[in-house]
Every structure is written in C-alpha cells, then in structure tokens.
Amino acid sequence: MQNIRANKMGLIDVLMSDPDYILQNLQADALITQREYNIIKTKKLSVEETVIDILDKIMNKGEDTCRRFLTLLQTDDVQETFPNLKHLICPNVPKQDNQEFAEISEYPMTDIPRGLCVIFNNETFTNLKRRDGSQKDADRLREVFGWLGFKVKIVKDQSAEEMRDHLRGFGQQAGGQCFVCCVLSHGTQQGVYGRDGKVLGLSEILQPFRAASGHALNGKPKVFFIQACQGSHMQEAVSAGCDEDLETESDGGPVGTIPCDADFLVGMATVQDCVSLRDVRDGSWYIQTLCRMLEQGSPSGEDIHSILTRVNEEVSRMNETMKHNGVVCLAKQMPEPKYTLTKKLVFRVPE
C-alpha cells in the first residue's frame, strides 16, 4: 500500500493513457468484482478521476490486494502497454530469511457490522456545570462510525456506577472484528465523572475488555477515545485579549496507563496535566477534528496511526483567546494517543 501511495501521482499519469485496459485486467485477475467493474465503467468521470477511483479502491481493499496489484503492474503485457511503469514500480525482490522490516499485517475489517461503537455522553450533572456542545460531538461520532460500518449505541447522562455496569455488559457481549468506546464527560486526575459527580477511573473503563480466556475480542482491536482533560493547566498559555465563547472542560481528566494487554488504542483529547477544549456551540476540538480526519483518511485506506497524527497536527494549530482561572490567555491543546496494537488498524468504508 505504501508503494502505491508513494507513487500515486506517477501511477495516475501513466495509467491515464489507457484506464480501460488496466480496469479489464483488474476484473480478470479478480482484484475487483464484476459489480465494482460495472460501477466504475458507468460513472461519468474524467480519465484522471477514473484512475484515481481505481487506485483508491485498490488501497481500500488492504495489503494483500495491493501486493497483487503491484504484481499485475510488473507483468510483461501490462508493462508493454505502460512502458513507463518500469521507472515507477520496483520488481519484487525475494526476501532473505533474516531480512528485517517485513510488511505489517492488518486487522481484518470486512464484516457488517464491523462491531459495536458505544458513546457515553455525559452532558448534564447533579453538581457540575453542564457540558454544552457535547451533543454535537455525540452526533458526529454516531454519524462517522455508522458510516464506517459500526453498530452505534449512545448512552446518555450516566452515573459512575451505571457507566461501570454498562461497560461490564459490553465487555461480556461485544463481538465483531473491533470494539470502539467514546467517553465524553468532565474529569479529574483520577478519572471521568459520572453525572452524579462520582469518578470512574480509566483502568475501570478498560478492564472489562482485557484479555481473558475465551473473550470474543481477544486478538481484536479495542479502541477508546476519551474527551476529557488530564489536568487543570492551560497548555502554552500566553497573555492575550478575552473571548469567552470557548469553554474548557472542568478540573482535569483521566490519568493512567493503558493495560499491558495487546490490541488496545486509547486516544486522549490532551496530554497529561492539561485541559481539553470544547466550543459550547460546535463541540470539542478533539472529537470534531477526529471525525473530520476519519472521513478524509478512511476512504483511501489510511491507518489509524496516521489519522491520529493528522489529528495532533490539526488540533495543535488551533488556538482561541479565553479566560481560564481568572486569567486571560491563548488556549492551545495537544492530543495524545497511546496504544498496544499489534497490527495495522484501518477503518475501511463498507461498499
């Protein structure tokens, strides 16, 4: 896949000379189905757009299909039709037994539904400020993960004990090829708040999904996105003018480590000791950016590590003047992903 992505512009230029020929070969070699072939043929696209569509479809099918596509491009007939391919695609070199950097395998992501996506949206509390804008985050997460093929369940305004019970139940029942859990709440350095003001620790959120004999999610990715602070400090604050349209999450968030078990990813909205930021009208910086990057990267087969790096880049560029703890400052934020994934995780868009 990396070879195709790295040479994508060159491949477009070369294959534009006869996209029908390469399309026929893809169908003949079962790299695309007859239905996919017919859909591409009937689309009213330019020659360039057709080739881009073909390459994106191949990359979206995973590493094995990409390898077979590269092998097809190295056949004599194809290279005779597209002689400039010889300058783009290096022939496959047999690997020595001790050769390092073998291709990273990929978690399967083909079932419909892919698995369950649970969204805990704590917006109103008995003794904490209402988290205005949080429903915007919940709605975007539901939209994006539904589009990615997940069954989505939203659980709203739960106490710490109710969240704990739900997580135990999901841990026992969840199947499929992947599990996703999004937690939107206030927090403290000990964990996230339930609507009753009691704390649920990060370890308690993850515990029901840790490896155990016979667990349906063993060897499968468990993904958690936590929209809460990890402290009360404003990151990189400087003296500035005042604009209070932006609101910070209150008093910290979950500090802890991800379990030693394999196949976990925990995406934190901010680094340790710092607040995360939420617009009271448009939702949080982190969740809204995460959803946008998933929409942009998933159709082309971009893996979650790359997507979360883009999220870091985008959020780190954002800033807003606001008042924090009585001091006017320039608000900044840096998310922090942590993981023990053992394979490449790609949220492929169902066809």
TrEMBL record:
Domain spans labelled Caspase family p10: 254-349
Origin: domain of life: Eukaryota
One cellular component (GO) term of this entry: nucleus
Enzyme class label: hydrolase
Entry annotation: catalytic residues: 186, 229
SUPFAM superfamilies in the record: Caspase-like, DEATH domain
UniProt cross-references to SMART domains, sorted A to Z: CASc
InterPro entries: CARD (IPR001315), Caspase-like_dom_sf (IPR029030), Caspase_cys_AS (IPR033139), DEATH-like_dom_sf (IPR011029), Pept_C14_caspase (IPR011600), Pept_C14_p10 (IPR002138), Pept_C14_p20 (IPR001309), Pept_C14A (IPR015917)
Domain CARD as annotated: residue spans: 1-74
One Pfam family it belongs to: CARD
Keyword Phosphoprotein included in the entry's annotation: yes
Family: Belongs to the peptidase C14A family.
UniProt-recorded name of the protein: Caspase-8
Organism field: Paramormyrops kingsleyae
